[in-house]
Structure formats: structure tokens, C-alpha cells
Amino acid sequence: MQLKTSAISVASALMFGLVSTAAAEDVKLPGTIAWSAYNTGTTGYNQSVAIGKALKDKYGVNLRVVPGKNDISRMSPLRNNKVQFIANGGGTYFASEGVFNFAAKSWGPQKVRLLMSATSDANISLGTAADANIKTMADLKGKRVGIVRGSPALTIGAQAALAFADLTFDDVKVVEFGGYGAMWKGMVSGQVDAAIASTVSGPTKKLQASPRGIHWPNWPHSDKAGWDRVLKVAPYFVPHVATLGTGISKEKPQEAGAYPYPILITRDDQDPALVYSMVKAIHTEYDNYKNALPAMPGWDLSKQTFKWAVPYHAAAVKYWKEIGAWTADMDAHNNALIERQNVLAEAWAKMASKDLPEDQFKAEWMKIRAAALEAKGMNPVWK
User: Fold this and answer.
1) CA nearest 369: which of 12, 107, 73?
2) pLDDT in tens, the chain (383 residues)
3) pTM of the entire structure?
4) Sequence-distant contacts of 369-375: CB under 8 A, at least 24 apart
């Protein structure tokens, strides 16, 4: 499950340039579209708004962005048909796998599908307050680390960061918050010393401007043992060098990790015509929003992650094939991910008759889940 940016041939890129203008005329979108995203002020929310403006200017579409403070609050509107898409993060993977908050009776594994994603020059990393004097990841021992209730993506991200230094939550003081924005306000106010974020996230700028200041400790890529520990906790992370972010530049890069963010997703049963038009519109309008924010170039064709840990929607695949960006190898990878979701769905169906308290239910599900995946030769990751 490695994040690999697809290599687009010159011929394909030229073909894309030839077809995009004509293909854009075929976009058919409703007057209003709704996405859920991270809290206002975050890079995921801001990028959604920037894309919405481009769609408004070109197609007259009103893109309503609904902020959600955690994975469940972003996913619920999609499940209930209140939004059609989510500009999501690592929680996409947890939803697909049916783990953490999605192991609850009311959820289970979700058949979510990608349209496209952004991989910018930023990292998903652990930001620290400069006055906490955390120079290396090992210096986190005994410090206060923020997490967000109901957001496995942020929590596991923090655990992965600590794992790099062979630390766990037992080695730090964990401070819980109700949302991402509240956690980073806690960084500014002195409630915590470290918190996970995209290096370009808006709230990180407030920490930098505060008396505390900001520092991003490196996760050196040469530390193979450290990275082995990271991947055991969060297999969707990969080593990545950030040259973009608060206090980060080409002259002052950061070695840490990343995964696509935002990841534009929907349900597997979403209207194919809507999915096709959505991905085509966002892609063909790239030039009209790429300069809106420093992280927007992550949506470029050359930075698309076509082989990740969650499958693409069939209508999105149709579009990427039309412009020559989709390969047979990607197809095989995608089909394997769909089969994995099917195995998880079948395993979840066995849970329907189990009348157990929530904690016991989750424990039983994780056993059944692992057994079902292993029976098909698939790695359960969590047991």
C-alpha cells in the first residue's frame, strides 16, 4: 500500500492537452453540489473552496463546503445523502477497512471510492511548539501531544509519528480535543506541545505567529528501523520531503511522511454521470485554481496517486482512461482493492446477528475481519 505518483508519458500529457478543452464542454453538473471537508481554516477546507470558485466561474455551480470536525462527522452526510463528495484525509482508509470508529455497530466497512487526490510538496507531520524544545522526535518523550476524539486519521498519525522514535502514547501526556481547530488553538494557548497537521494547514500559521513559534522535527528517511515502526502503525504513510509549509521552504525542507490530502471521495453507488462530470470539471479547470493556494499544485495530473489503499470509482476510472492516464497495472491494483472491500462487506454481514455490547462487538468484528482477509491471502494490518 505505497503512495506512488503515476508517471504520465509525454504523449499522454499532450493528448490530455488536446482533449481537455473539448471534453470540458461535456461536463454536466447540478446547480448546487455539497462536499464535506475538514474544519474551516484547514488546507482541506480552503482547497475545496478554491475549487468551488473555479467551478462557479466556469459552470455556474454553487459548491457548498460543509465542515466536519472528525471522520464520522464528515462521513455521516455522505452516507445520509446530504453531500455527494468528501474532501477527506486518512480516515478514508479507516472507513474502507471498517476499523477504529468505523468498527462500531452503526458503521462497519464502507465502500468508498476515490475520484482524485492532491499530493503537494507538503507533509502530514507532527508540528511542535518551538518553546517546547523538541529538536528530534525522541524529545517528544514526556511532552503533551494532542489528539482529536472521533478522528482516527489524526490519532493514528500522531501514533505513527511517535512510533518513529519508538514511543507510544504511554510515553507522552495525551490531551484530547473535540476537533482539529480546537487542538491547534490548544497549541497556541499552551495546552499541548505537539499535534499532527498538514504542514500547510492554516492553524499552523497561528502557532508560528504566536510567542510559542513552530518547529517540525524530522523523521530521517535514513532511519529504516524508525520507518518500519511508522508503517506498522500507518501503512498508508510513505517517506516524503516537504518544501512547502509553515516555517518550511526549499531552503529549509522537512524529512517526514505524507499521503494524499485532500482525497476526493464518494460512495461506490454514487451517480456515475455526476462522478464523471465532477472529476472532469475539477481536472480540466486546474489552470484556473492552481495558483489560489500554495498547496493547489498537488491536484496536477503529474501528482495524482492512482495506486493507493482505497479504490477509484468506475466513472472516475473511465475519465482517467479517456485521457490516457490510467494503465492496466492500475486497473489490476484497483480491482484487488475492490475485492478487498467485498471480502470486508461479506465479513461484516456475519456481524448482523451478533447481539453484543459495543466493546465486545468491536473485538469480535476485528477477529472476524482479520480471519476473512487472511483466508483470502490479504494482510489484515490490524488484528
Assistant:
1) 107
2) 434 444 333 334 444 444 443 344 489 999 999 999 999 988 899 999 999 999 999 999 999 999 998 889 999 999 999 999 999 998 899 999 999 989 999 999 999 999 999 988 999 999 999 999 999 999 999 999 999 987 888 899 999 999 999 999 999 999 999 999 999 999 999 999 999 999 989 999 999 999 999 999 999 999 999 999 998 888 889 899 999 999 999 999 999 998 899 999 999 999 999 999 999 999 999 999 999 998 899 999 999 999 998 999 999 999 999 999 999 999 999 999 999 999 999 999 999 889 999 999 999 999 999 999 999 999 898 87
3) 0.79
4) 369/98, 369/99, 369/109, 369/344, 371/347, 372/343, 372/344, 372/346, 372/347, 373/340, 373/343, 373/344, 373/347
The candidate with the shortest Cα–Cα distance to 95, out of 106, 87, 107, is 107
Would residue 363 count as lying in a domain?
A: no
Q: Give the count of domains, the chain.
A: 2
Do you find a cis peptide bond into 262, omega within 30 degrees of 0? Answer: yes
Residue 75 near residue 256 (C-beta atoms within 8 A): no
Query: Which residue bears the cell 455551480?
Result: 61
Grid coordinates in use for 239?
517517506
356 falls within a domain: no
Measured in degrees and rounded to the nearest 5, phi and psi for residue 85 equal -145, 165
Task: Let me know whether 163 and 253 are in one domain.
Answer: yes
What is the rounded distance in angstroms from the CA atom of residue 282 to the CA atom of residue 289? 9
Q: List the domain range (segments joined by +) for residue 71.
A: 10-119+261-340
Domain-terminating residue out of 224, 239, 257: 257
Does residue 90 sit in the same domain as residue 50? yes
Residue 132 within any structural domain of the chain:
yes
What whole-number distance in Å separates Cα of residue 319 and Cα of residue 323? 7
Query: Looking at the structure, do residues 185 and 294 belong to the same domain, yes or no?
Result: no
